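Design job #97: recover the sequence.
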């Protein structure tokens, strides 16, 4: 069964089309890369999947998450899908983190919600053990210190790991990652990508990975959908799209990535 089915998705702002007629499908365990230059509609597509479009924007078409409709549904119908079926990691972990709450208290929210959903009671000790396990899962070295810290007291990479831990704590089957490493320095980027790759494999998650960074997408996605000016211009297996792009827009994106790579020269 398809975990995510998007058919004819359009997003409008006061009559202006920002996303037009997008189709996507994701089966359980599949990894899809969504690429395209800035402003091509990638983030709005992802937000529409979870019914999280900003005020003033409206979606039309069909989005089915685990067979259940998203578009046109009231928020209370979507709450059970968010986290439990699909969870999201954003470019800037500060989007997911409350600056005025200790990281441990924030992580407790999805852990408690999942326990309630599964009919498990959680003592203080159970919660502490679950918090530590959630941080160990994202390879955080000193879980006790991080749990007691405020978001501004940890590094950007650690914040993103906590945001990933919170997304996974809900027990989703689909992880949507929107430029999750763009705000990080290059070595932290590589660590977070390796972490995501391992987690998605170990947990058997489906992944919708959004990025304008083609080499990063090539490293993690099985299939790629290319967007330009709100529309899908090309899609296919990653190797095929990156090595033999059919559309001039994709050819241009790849040529630009190659030029950048050549200009940077061989890595250290
Ligand atoms: N709240 C909004 N109101 C009006 N227009 C918006 C809003 N959010 C985004 N847009 C516009 O919609 C288009 C698509 O934006 P979107 O954020 O989906 O692009 P993107 O491909 O994710 O780009 P980036 O990589 O820069 O995030 C852009 O032209 C953007 O300016």
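Job complete. Output follows.
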């Amino acid at each position: 069964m398809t975990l995510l089915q998007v058919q004819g998705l359009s997003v409008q702002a006061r009559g202006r089309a920002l996303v037009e007629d997008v189709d996507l499908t994701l089966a359980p365990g599949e990894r899809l890369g969504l690429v395209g230059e800035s402003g091509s509609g990638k983030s709005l597509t992802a937000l529409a999947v979870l019914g999280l479009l900003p005020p003033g924007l409206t979606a039309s078409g069909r989005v089915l998450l685990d067979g259940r409709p998203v578009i046109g549904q009231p928020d209370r119908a979507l709450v059970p899908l968010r986290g439990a079926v699909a969870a999201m990691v954003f470019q800037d972990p500060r989007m997911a983190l409350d600056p005025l709450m200790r990281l441990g208290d924030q992580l407790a929210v999805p852990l408690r919600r999942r326990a309630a959903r599964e009919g498990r009671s959680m003592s203080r000790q159970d919660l502490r053990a679950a918090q530590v396990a959630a941080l160990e899962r994202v390879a955080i070295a000193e879980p006790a210190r991080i749990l007691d810290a405020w978001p501004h007291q940890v590094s950007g990479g650690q914040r993103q790991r906590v945001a990933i831990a919170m997304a996974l704590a809900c027990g989703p089957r689909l992880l949507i990652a929107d430029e999750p490493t763009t705000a990080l320095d290059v070595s932290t980027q590589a660590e977070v990508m390796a972490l995501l790759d391992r987690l998605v494999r170990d947990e058997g998650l489906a992944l919708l990975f959004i990025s304008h960074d083609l080499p990063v997408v090539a490293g993690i996605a099985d299939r790629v959908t290319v967007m330009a000016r709100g529309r899908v211009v090309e899609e296919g297996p990653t190797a095929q799209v990156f090595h033999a792009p059919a559309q001039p827009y994709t050819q241009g994106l790849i040529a630009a990535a190659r030029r950048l790579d050549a200009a940077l020269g061989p890595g250290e």
